[in-house]
Amino acid sequence: MIKAARIAPSILAADFSRLGADVALVEDHVDLLHIDVMDGHFVPNISLGFPVIASLRPVTKLRFDCHMMTTNPDAYFEQLAEAGADIVTVHIEVFPEPTRAAAMARACGLEFGLVVNPPTPIESLDPFIELCDMILVMSVTPGFGGQSFMAEALPKIEHARKFVDSRGLATDIEVDGGIGPDNVGRARMAGADVFVAGSSIFGAPDPLAAVDAMRSTIKDSQTG
Q: What is the value of pTM for the model shown?
């Protein structure tokens, strides 16, 4: 059964000169914090690392959802845990057989999830979903913020939802990329329960109004 909707603002779109203040602004209005770690190899961009994650940990009670866009994320699970991460998601494209990676993450005290990129069939996750606390469906090509939502993600979300529900799993289904009030309802109807939003929240004139608009759209999609 689909869980309560949760919103996870992506700090990749925040103002890094006032990161703590941006997080404090949304803290009481969102459900977890999405943190993108990029290495410049798996994706053509470099983003924040462990010192930034550690610096945020004392200033917020939000859970840290760390999306590892790196070629060797398993090398950093222990550092992630020490920095204050709660969930780590890694790409099926990096770990076509992720059983060992899942065990390593859990040994460090982390929850574990798998990410699937737009070109990769969602079915590649099926043998491993039972290992996962979270499945993350990318609705943009990973590596840069501010991209437009790809509707091709919706059938993938539907597939993951049916798989999870048919086996009675508690796995969260997260969607990331171009999510905002204009499409979050469709993603919810497809079966997502965690919604990553960067530019549509931190890039909005009023981030809290943007969060409220997303929640209202999600509610309407469930009752309409």
A: 0.95
